[in-house]
Amino acid sequence: MIPANILLTKPNARKRKLRVAAYCRVSTEQEEQQSSYAAQIAYYTEKINKNKDWELTGIFADEGITGTSAKKRTEFLKLMALCEKGKIDMVLTKSVSRFSRNTLDAIGYTRKLKAKGIPIIFEKEGINTMEMASEMVLCFLSGFAQAESESISRNVTWGKRQSFKSGKVPFQYSRILGYEKGEDGQPKIVPEEAEIVKRIFRSYYSGASVQKIKESLEADKIFSPTGKQEWSIGALQYMLRKA
User: Fold this and answer.
1) Which one of 3, 30, 102, 192 is most buried, by most CB atoms within 10 A?
2) HSE-CB for 43 with a 13 A CA cutoff
3) Per-residue pLDDT tens for 89-123?
4) How far is 236 from 208, CA to CA, in rounded Å?
5) Angle CA(136)–CA(142)–CA(147) in degrees, nearest 5?
6) Strand, helix or coil at 200?
7) Where residue 176 falls among pLDDT bands split at 50, 70, 90?
């Protein structure tokens, strides 16, 4: 005689909670986008924790990363890897464009998860990928998202070209050594930083290797353009090559 399974026969037997994860993404580093990024994380953390039948597996968030390719989105790939290992039961995301702006990526990953019985819930569009009609809708929506991304990219490129034509060139002052933005909006020389630049070139022309220059700067506790104590050989080579 086979004994009855207590978990199956007891009416109050504990049911395993649904392991739920969320994916968030913002594609720019603008201030309003950063607040959106933080808001998405807070929203999903609260939403999942409030549901007594759900267990928070993780909030996976890529900040300042394009949605047109999954290859550069490390958090997205981590999420997909956990799904593949069977450690997640359901994925929540704000919209199709947050999940992916590439039609092939969106459909491909959706099919992989669907085959494992893992639904993706797109809240804005009200799509549950486990429903039969969802793939056709998802195909259209991700296609629109991809087209929108390509249009934005073309507009940004056009805008930059027009700025160049009118003599307006954007500077990433936080990554440039020797200059800061002046009161008139034009580049202004920072004397102390200019001396560091001169030192680098003098050393190089005197026969010092890039490695020796790096070691000398670090020994004198001179910080890199990005404020780091350690200098990158690649950055020094780039600086010398562009001169």
Assistant:
1) 102
2) 14
3) 999 988 877 777 666 677 788 888 888 999 989 88
4) 12
5) 130
6) helix
7) confident
